[in-house]
Amino acid sequence: MTLNRIHDSLNSVRSIAVGELIESPVVVSPNESLSKIISTLIESNSYDVFVELSDKIAALNVRDIIGAKDIKTTKPSLVGKVIPELQRESVVGEAARIMSHYRLRTLPIVQNGKIQGQVSAKRIVDLINKKLVENKVRVNASNVMTGDPIVIDSHKTVSAAKSLMKRRRIDHLPVVDNSRLVGIITSSDIMKLMSPSERIGKKSIGISDAEDKLSIEVSGIANDNVITASVEDTLTSVCDKMTRAGSSYCIINVWDEIQGIITYRDIVAMLGEQLAEDIPMFIVGLPDEPFDAELAKSKFANITKFMRKIHPDIEQARCHIKLRKVSGSRKRYEIDVHIRSTHGNISYTNVGWDLAKLFDEMNHALKKRVSSKNKKNL
User: Which pTM was predicted?
Assistant: First the structure.
């Protein structure tokens, strides 16, 4: 089945009201310390919590917490981010866009300025999976996965894993030994390690200080029971594996070689907006401002059409726009683009304050890359 038909088959999911998926939210006081919030996250088995401020709502996730310098004194308002609010009548398509843009797994459902519930990426993934089964739509894992995921050597320290997650804004790191997959470490694993009361087994004997805990090797806390699937497996079978294991990821392998990773974010991204072009183009995380959103769509479409002149065999193009930071009225974005053809993949990532400039820089970089490749072939 073509990507266009897959996208169309999920239209009914996009239009479902989030009020139909409402769950109990995890809300914390703006005066609570991060160490107390860590305990709340562990007890509730959650990734995000919400904070009701005077006239707005902030979200705080595990990756925000592991980036904090002092969990005992830091307040959530210093590391959390203000996010858009959903009402019960808001639709799943809008929730998926906001989740992708802010890199969250849950969003608050608000009424009269108060949080009434939440909608989660897990519920949306369940909806997508059920719809694919209902419509008998086959989607291969390779069509959804993020290829060539970042990995970490088993002998590196937990501190190195923490820094890598913060810098690359990821929550899952496959652990390798001589390029062979031996485990996985998540941002939640590191957060638990930062908890003053956390015990990490025999290897932690005599280790009580947080910095000492972070200095142990990744192999000391990595989970060796890794959820895996083959590139030929269907997305439905991957979702079933993730659900049974209570996992937010699945590593995609060919034999012992890591090909990619699928997370909730990759699956929710299937609800992203499809551009009206003859190339299957999808863009996720569009800005809230209509002008910026249209500008991003236009520039991405023009870049993809240019690349197709050079590579007529392009099969699809995906663009993720992620919000990295907000400073007053300024917003710092990350754009992550993957263009797939039968002869290989083209990837590009950039970060900056000016969204239009980021796309222009990508256009220049890809043209330069094509020009350099053509010169080598002469």
Answer: 0.76
d(CA 248, CA 105): 10
Contact predicate 51/58, CB 8 Å: yes
Retrieve residue 90's tokens. 């808001």
Q: Are strands 114-120 and 106-111 parallel, antiparallel or unpaired?
A: antiparallel
* Domain covering 274-377: architecture: 2-Layer Sandwich (3.30)
Is 141-268 CATH 3.30.470.20? Answer: no
Write phi, then psi, for 354 (nearest 5 degrees). -110, 110
- Domain 16-121 and domain 141-268, same fold? Reply is yes
154 in Cβ contact with 217 (< 8 Å): yes
Residues 6+ apart with CB under 8 A from 131: 9, 10, 12, 13, 137
User: How far separated are the first and last CA of the chain, in Å rounded?
Assistant: 38
Backbone phi and psi for residue 320, each to the nearest 5 degrees, phi listed first: -110, 125
Residue-wise pLDDT for 88-138, tens only, equals 999 999 898 888 878 889 999 998 888 999 999 999 999 999 999 998 888
* Topology (CATH) of 16-121: CBS-domain (3.10.580)
What are the helix (H) ranges across the chain? 3-9, 11-14, 34-44, 62-66, 76-79, 92-102, 121-134, 141-144, 158-168, 187-194, 210-214, 235-245, 264-268, 290-310, 355-377
Residues 93 and 107: beta-carbon distance below 8 Å: no
Query: Nearest Cα to 305, choosing from 273, 281, 341?
Result: 281
Closest Cα partner for 64 from 43, 81, 50? Answer: 81
Beta-bridge partners for 346: 339
**Closest Cα partner for 151 from 128, 174, 179?**
174
